[in-house]
Amino acid sequence: MMRRFLHCLLALATLASCAKTGTGGGPAAIGPSGVPPQLRASGEDSGTPVAPGGNAVSADRRIDLTPEEDIVFTDPDNPDAGLPELSALLSAAPKRRGPWEESETIAKRRAVREGKPLLIWFTDSARSPMCKALNEELFSTSAFEAWASEKIIRLRVDASARVEGDDISLDEKETRLADVRHYVTRLKKQYRILGHPSLVMLNPGGEVIGRYRGYKRGDADYFWGLIKQGEAASASAYQEWRAALEKKGYREWSDRKDRKVFAKLTGYADGSLTLIEPDGTRSRTHENQLSDKDREWIARRKAVSAQGAW
User: Where are the alpha helices (DSSP H) in 191-219?
Assistant: First the structure.
């Protein structure tokens, strides 16, 4: 029995000596690299990452501004596939039947690009008398139209929306109608809408800054005053939001037609730029399609990059 006890003590002592390293006496830390510390170069914990690809662009021809982890790709599965040209995005004018957008995606993108708050109107045009009154007494007036065209982006979400068109089959109409109903239900749930009319105002960053529920005939001026207060609050919040993004590398870019986009440069090589907007939309362009001011900015950054200071 004593002999077996001594053998156990000897085995435990051997294991303890294998678990100690250096003078600290703690367990050997393997680290993320999977290489024991005594075999690592320069005592690094995880080694030096190697950039993929062997044909790197020289420093005087490349501008890298944004860490990979800070980029939100439009298509995360294939971030480089089919990037649209910036000129095509800026020149695209989505067709709409009136001053109110019908696509949340388009409305939010316009709000970000134009720096305006987004007013979402949840309505039931076929069944709600107060929705009709609000439209007649305020939204259809020329005074509101002139103000809203300059100050806000508008999105209408209609519970009574129809799918029209003589060139589509009945089955296709039913499919589209089901999609519309799902879209309306999703947005009502997202913004906690319980009745009509209800309006929600978002700042360009997507934050809810105002809610307006119900309407009474004759209250158009009062209701409009509430919307104006929301727009003023959004204008102040937008400046803070924009300033915060500018600290992260976002800036306003202009093309040769003076069309503008607020975006961050994520890559540059041989005059070709990759830009990303705050909502994740990515596009490509060439510096010869940009304004003189932007081309001068690029030239300065290239000079700094070539000196190794950027």
Answer: none
Find the helix packing angle between 142-151 and 220-246, rounded to 10°.
10
CATH of domain 95-242: 3.40.30.10
Q: Supply the CATH classification number for the domain 59-75+247-306.
A: 2.30.30.700
β-bridge mates for residue 154, sequence order: 119
* 157 DSSP β-pair partners: 122
Q: Cite the beta strand spans of 170-295 per DSSP E.
A: 198-202, 208-213, 250-254, 260-269, 272-276, 282-286
| Cα(299)–Cα(297) distance, integer angstroms | 5
Quickly list DSSP for 19-47: T--TTT-SPPP-TTTTS-GGGSGGG-SS-
CA gap 301, 293 in Å, rounded: 13
Alpha-carbon torsion (165, 170, 174, 175), positive or negative: negative
Give residue-wise pLDDT tens across range 212-236: 999 999 999 999 999 999 999 888 8
Three-state DSSP class for 275? strand
Domain parsing of the chain, residue ranges? 59-75+247-306, 95-242
Residue 273, judged by CB atoms within 10 A of its CB (0-12, 13-18, 19+), counts as: buried
Looking at residue 37, what DSSP letter applies?
Answer: G
Please tell me whether the overall predicted TM-score, pTM, comes out greater than 0.70 for this model: no
